[in-house]
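S2.1 Query sequence (DUF624 domain-containing protein)
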Amino acid sequence: MVNLLWLVSLALVVTAGAGTVVAYEVCRRYVLGKDAGLWDVAAKAWRQSWRQATLVGLLAVPVAAAGVFALSSLPTLGTGQVLVPLVVVALFLVLLLFWCLPLAARFTNPTWRQVRNGFTLGLTTPSLTFLLGIALVLGGVAVWNFMPAVFVAPGLILLWWCSLLERFFVARGYVQPEPEEAEV
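Output structure tokens follow.
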């Protein structure tokens, strides 16, 4: 039974990046108002970016482990000694999961370039990254205080972030705006 739990946990960790890319692509299609079947969009996103997204997602594992180690040393070291490493770990994870993985879903580049571009965009647009951090903290507080919010808060944050990213990509000229359909 324990071996099965380890196997399932490992499968969840390995597929977290690809699952995040699929969720981003489904939300992006919803934000853009494109009509496509949910399963078709998810299957296409999985096929196109599962390798790259899995590699990017696996980059988060050692960083999250460093965060867990920092949290576990909180009782002995105190808040002052652990706060900076936790902020660095949180920033790295936010940049990796909310900048790099959407780039992997949206653009075709080598993995190292997706990571570099994600970090560059996240660090050169601190207002968006800070706004995302506030949304994540508020979502965490909502889940902490009202556990059923775990079913709603992540989806709302992802939809909001997808709409912000699409406007950001269009405003910077990275993608062409979606053509408005003529009214009949």
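Residues 38-72 form the longest helix (35 residues). The chain has a mean pLDDT of 84.
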